């Protein structure tokens, strides 16, 4: 598969993940925590970088920035998993919540970017994994793909 086709597929996956997160939020009443919102930002940023790389000659540059964002998203997912495994650390209010909700996207599109949940909340499993576990797996897979794209020779 060509690098441009891979980037197109990743764009579709990222859009699908955002749609699924909104479904969980609005129809299953799973409120997003600050780290969930950070992961949403990461998926959107990856999709934008992939879009840039797919339609410009700067595919390696776009892959580099996508790799950085994927590593950041994996870190956010790891932090959420750590918060779930260590519930005693949480004091009932997440300190990231006020910061995340003061950002402009949270004010412009609160239904997408407003944080209202707790990072330590245990979520139901979907096909054997919780949403942050799925997110971590996908971010790691994306990082690997972006690294491979950066190493490929031009054709």
From TrEMBL:
It is found in: Cell membrane. It comes from the Bacteria. GO terms for cellular component: plasma membrane. The keyword Cell cycle does not apply. GO terms for biological process: protein folding. GO terms for molecular function: protein-disulfide reductase activity. The chain crosses the membrane at residues 37-55, 62-84, 134-151. Keywords: Cell membrane, Membrane, Transmembrane, Transmembrane helix. It holds the Pfam family DsbB. It is a multi-pass membrane protein. Its main location: membrane. This is Disulfide bond formation protein B. It comes from Oxalobacter vibrioformis.
């Amino acid at each position: 598969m060509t690098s441009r086709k891979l980037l197109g597929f990743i764009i579709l996956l990222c859009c699908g993940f955002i749609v699924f997160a909104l479904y969980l939020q609005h129809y299953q009443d799973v409120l997003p925590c600050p780290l969930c919102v950070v992961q949403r930002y990461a998926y959107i940023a990856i999709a934008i970088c992939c879009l840039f790389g797919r339609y410009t000659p700067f595919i390696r540059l776009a892959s580099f920035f996508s790799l950085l964002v994927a590593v950041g998203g994996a870190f956010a997912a790891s932090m959420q998993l750590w918060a779930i495994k260590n519930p005693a650390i949480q004091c009932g209010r997440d300190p990231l919540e006020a910061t995340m909700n003061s950002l402009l996207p949270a004010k412009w599109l609160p239904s997408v970017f407003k944080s209202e949940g707790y990072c330590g909340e245990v979520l139901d499993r979907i096909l054997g994994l919780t949403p942050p576990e799925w997110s971590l797996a996908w971010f790691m897979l994306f990082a690997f793909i972006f690294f491979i794209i950066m190493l490929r020779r031009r054709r």
